[in-house]
Specification:
Elements (H helix, E strand, L loop, with lengths): L5 H9 L2 H11 L11 H19 L4 H17 L5 H14 L6 H16 L2 H8 L29 H27 L7 H52 L12 H22 L1
Length: 279
C-alpha cells in the first residue's frame, strides 16, 4: 500500500479498466496471478478498483481516493469470517477512525457506499472471499484447420471437365512408369504390351466421354439460342399484328369543300327546272 499515492490512483482512473486494474495490482505490490485459477484475488482486485471509481465519481480529492482504497482493503481483511452484526460494528469503528481523513460529506458517502454494497451482499462476499475453492480446470489444445484459399473465379472449371482431368492424371500415374520401363529395356512389343493395350482402351474411353460432354454442352447452348430466336420472332409478329389492327382515323374535311358541294347541288337543281320548262 506504500506505493498507492494520489498520483498512482489518478493514473489508475485515467487508464481503461484492464490496464487500470493491472496498474493498481502493481501499486499494491501484488505478484502476478492467473485470473482463472485465482478468482478470489481477481474479485478482490475488482472490489478495490471499483472503490476508486466510486470515490472519483463522488468528487473525492486524489489523496482521499487513495485512502478509500486503503479503507476498503482493511475492511475486507478485518471482517473475514465475522457475522454480519460484527461486520456492521467493524464498519462503524473504521468510519470513526477515518474521521480525520475525510470531511463529513465524504464520510457519509463512504458509509452509504459500503452499506449498499458490502453489507447488503455480505454473505456473498464471505462466501467468495472467505472460503477456499477447489479449482478443477482442464485445458485442451484444439488445432483448427482453416479451409484453403479458393482460387479466382476466372480459373474455375466445369465439374465434369475437372473430373475428366483427374481421371487422366490418375491413369497417367499408373501407366507412365510401365511405359518408361518399356522404353528403357526396349520391350515395346514384349510382356508389357497388354498394359499398353489397356492404357489405349482407357484413353479411348476417356476421349469418348470428353467428346460426349462437349456435344451435350453444345446441344444445350444451341437449344438456348434457338429458343431466344423464336422468342424474338414471336415478339416481332405480335408487333406487326398490332400495327395492322390499328384503328383508321376519321377523314378531316378540307376547308371550303362543303361550300363547293352545296353550290354544285344547287346548279344541278336549276338545270333540271329549266329542262322541265322547255318541255
Amino acid at each position: 500500500m506504500a506505493l498507492l499515492t494520489a498520483q498512482g490512483v489518478e493514473r489508475v482512473f485515467q487508464l481503461q479498466k484492464p490496464e487500470g486494474r493491472e496498474h493498481l495490482r502493481r501499486l499494491l505490490n501484488w505478484e502476478e496471478f492467473d485470473e482463472v485459477r485465482d478468482p478470489r484475488r481477481s474479485i478482490l482486485l475488482d472490489t478495490l478498483y471499483e472503490s476508486i471509481i466510486f470515490a472519483v465519481g463522488k468528487g473525492f480529492p486524489w489523496r482521499e481516493v487513495a485512502q478509500v482504497v486503503k479503507f476498503t482493503e482493511e475492511l475486507l481483511k478485518e471482517t473475514k469470517g465475522c457475522s454480519i452484526t460484527e461486520a456492521v460494528t467493524i464498519l462503524g469503528n473504521k468510519l470513526r477512525d477515518y474521521q480525520g481523513q475525510f470531511n463529513t460529506t465524504h464520510l457519509l458517502a463512504l458509509c452509504d457506499y459500503f452499506h449498499n454494497t458490502f453489507i447488503r451482499h455480505y454473505k456473498l462476499y464471505q462466501y467468495v472471499l472467505g472460503q477456499d475453492r477447489d479449482v478443477n480446470l482442464t485445458v485442451a489444445n484444439l488445432e483448427v484447420c482453416t479451409p484453403p484459399q479458393p482460387l479466382p473465379l476466372a480459373e474455375g472449371k466445369d465439374r465434369e471437365v475437372w473430373k475428366h482431368e483427374q481421371q487422366l492424371e490418375g491413369l497417367s500415374s499408373r501407366v507412365l512408369p510401365e511405359l518408361a520401363f518399356m522404353e528403357a529395356w526396349g520391350m515395346k512389343e514384349g510382356p508389357c504390351l497388354p498394359a499398353t493395350f489397356c492404357f489405349l482402351q482407357e484413353l479411348e474411353k476417356l476421349i469418348n466421354e470428353a467428346i460426349h460432354i462437349q456435344i451435350e454442352c453444345l446441344k444445350e447452348l444451341l437449344q438456348y439460342e434457338i429458343q431466344i430466336t423464336f422468342d424474338i420472332l414471336d415478339l416481332k409478329l405480335q408487333k406487326k399484328t398490332l400495327n395492322l389492327n390499328a384503328p383508321i382515323p376519321p377523314l378531316v374535311p378540307i376547308a371550303g369543300q362543303s361550300g363547293q358541294d352545296e353550290a354544285l347541288k344547287l346548279s344541278k337543281t336549276n338545270k333540271g327546272k329549266k329542262a322541265k320548262a322547255k318541255k
